[in-house]
Amino acid sequence: MTTPATSTAPTLERLRGQLLGHGFTELVPDTLDDVAAAGTGMLIVLPLDDPAQRPEFFDLTVVLPEIVHQFGPDAFRVAFACPPDSAATAKRFGVLRHPALIFLREGRYVGSIEGLRDWADYVQSFARLRTEAPQPIPIPLSVSGARS
């Protein structure tokens, strides 16, 4: 595969290589629904963004395989989407903060974890989401003209 000629390509390619090295599935356009419906266990989807602007993605690629491993080989499957497709994936599931992990069971939305967390919070959230029933996808709200 050739690397696109952009300033972020080397770091994005490195991140992509790490995820593939862990056996995670790369989503290509219009394959999310098929990947989510196939297989057993819960699917975790990681919509990637520019790691040069959000280095937390590198931290997550270290933590995520360890957490998944802690729950056993059949508990979770992991897939990721690279830009620009990842933006549509994040929007589809109401993600407002990156990095984010989206949890799907049999193709249905269960929940998400947004932002980088500490180990205990990830483990607790994974355990909770693993047992929760599917729910409606959140509708992101934008507030225009709000003052902070």
What does this structure look like?
It is a single chain. The chain is an alpha/beta fold. It has one domain: Glutaredoxin (3-Layer(aba) Sandwich). The protein has five helices and five strands; from the N terminus they run H-E-H-E-H-E-H-E-E-H. It has helices at 9-21, 32-37, 56-70, 85-92, 119-131, and strands spanning 25-27, 42-47, 76-81, 100-105, 108-114. A five-stranded mixed β-sheet has the order 1-3-2-4-5. Strand 2, helix 3 and strand 3 (76-81) form a beta-alpha-beta unit. The longest helix is centred in the middle third of the chain and has 15 residues, at 56-70. The radius of gyration is 15 Å and the shape is globular. 28% of the residues are buried.
Task: Characterize this entry briefly.
The protein has helices at 9-21, 32-37, 56-70, 85-92, 119-131; strands at residues 25-27, 42-47, 76-81, 100-105, 108-114. It is α/β, with parallel strands linked by helices.
